[in-house]
Amino acid sequence: MAAIAVTAAAVWYDCRERRIPNRLVVSSMAVGLVLGLVTGGLRGLGASVVGLLVGAGILFVPFALGWVGAGDVKLLAAVGAILGAKGAACSILYGAVAGGIISAAVLVKRRRLGLTLASIGIGFIGFLSFVVPGILGRSLRVVRQSGEVVLVPPSGLAIPYSAAIGVGLLIAIATGFSILPA
Question: Among 73, 88, 128, 141, which lies 20 to 30 A Cα-Cα from 150?
Answer without folding.
Answer: 73
